[in-house]
Amino acid sequence: MPQFDVYSMIKWLHLTAFALGGGSAMVILILVGLEDTREDLKGMTSVLWRRTTAWAFRVAVLLGITLLVMRILAGEQPFAAKYLHWKLGLVVLLLVCSELSGKALGKARRGAALLAFLLFLMATFVSVNHDAFGTVVHRAGNGAAGTYTGTVEQGD
User: Fold this and answer.
1) Residue range 6-133, CATH number
2) Which of 11, 18, 27, 75 is least enclosed, having the fewest CB within 10 Å?
3) Are 83 and 130 in contact (CB under 8 A)?
4) Tens-place pLDDT, residues 24-77
């Protein structure tokens, strides 16, 4: 019987949810063009976005936060990697745009959905090419002379 690592399973679910969200966003953006010409498709992309893309991105973000907490509890320093700072910023913007896109698509506005898809592509690029960003070097400071403590001492 195979032994499953919880971290690996959550990582796989995170990747699957993120890919599902990005793939459904692409399909929905293709379908947006059909809404203009066919009456029976009016409002379909808004409903599809809310039911597939928005939920997939929400689940992916929750699983990503879980992975981050698991790494911190394991004693790792995930924030030492510079790519994570970029990725977190892009993901927050992606989540905001994804939440705005459902209502915007209902009003035949595509900007938020296109921006969400672009942010998905950018977050994917940063995640795949994480080695290109390097890491933050932490200098050990044990209170020795020459370390900054956050206060300014003034002499008499």
Assistant:
1) 1.20.120
2) 75
3) yes
4) 999 999 888 887 787 777 788 889 999 999 999 999 999 999 999 999 999 889
Q: 35: which DSSP letter?
A: H
The set of residues, in sequence order, having a beta carbon less than 8 Å from that of 150 and lying 6+ positions away, is none
CA atoms in the 13 A half-sphere facing the CB of 78: 16
Domain boundaries of the chain, sorted by first residue: 6-133
Its pTM stands at 0.80
Q: How many angstroms from the chain centroid is the CA of residue 40? A: 34
Q: Considering just the CA atoms, what is the radius of gyration of the chain in Å?
A: 21
CA atoms within 13 A on the CB side of 117: 14
C-alpha distances in Å from residue 150, one per residue of 10, 137, 141, 147: 39, 19, 13, 9
Quote the CA–CA distance of 120 and 142 in Å, as a whole number.
41
Please count the CA atoms within 13 angstroms of the CA of 121 that sit on its side-chain side: 7
